[in-house]
Amino acid sequence: MSQPSSKDTRTHGTYRRLREDILGGRLTPGQRLKFPDLCRQYGTSVGAAREALVRLTAEGLVRTQAHQGYTVTPLSYDDLRELTKARVEMESLVLRLSVEEGDTRWEARAVAAHHVLRRTPFLGPDSPDHPSDDWAAAHAEFHLALLAGCTNRRLLDVALGLREEAELYRQWSAPYGQEQHRDLAAEHRDLLEAAVDRETDRAVELIRDHIAHTAQLLITCAEDEPAAGAPTADRTADRTAG
Q1: CA-based nearest residue to 118, from 173, 187, 28
Q2: What are the residue boundaries of the structural domains of the chain, listed by start?
Q3: I want to staple 159 with a disulfide (CB 3.0 to 4.6 A). Which of 27, 68, 94, 97 is the partner?
Q4: Contact at 8 Å (CB) between 95 and 198?
């Protein structure tokens, strides 16, 4: 088996660190990503930085525009509304297939991922207003585990890509996970129980509500405001659920 080249290793390392800094809020939405700065900050080459940015662009975390180069994907209400509608439809479909097709190993992975999420502190010592990197990673793994029973890799990849884009909004919504009258831990527990008990319709209903509830909160971190009379993100999600 061939070993990865030093170039591949350097590119992957740059990609991983950039991705962590974007999702961790250390690189801000709309911030320009200039090659001289990236090379200096990450100790990498222009080629490795470019390849990393191309991968992040494909994941929706970075955008490229003529005459501006690469930027961290900006946040906007219109983008969130479109993202929410896509997530509600795609993620509920993939979760349905996952519950129907997942085997015992899938169940075990979901249970284990939930255990890690439940045991991981939501806030870290350096992030009093945002989810910690460890919690964000455990949260992502839990939702991946729930969806991983789906045997259609194309559908699964699309659903996970949309979830990645939503991570930007979660990171920049300060009250996320700390809202009054919401029990985020209970939402995750109920999702797990419905999935492993093979209650397909209930699992789909719960994931739709989970996405819509979160999206309504995340409107507060978008750079623009909903137009007068425009449907809110959760109403958009509810409409598509019907």
Answers
A1: 187
A2: 6-72, 77-241
A3: 94
A4: no
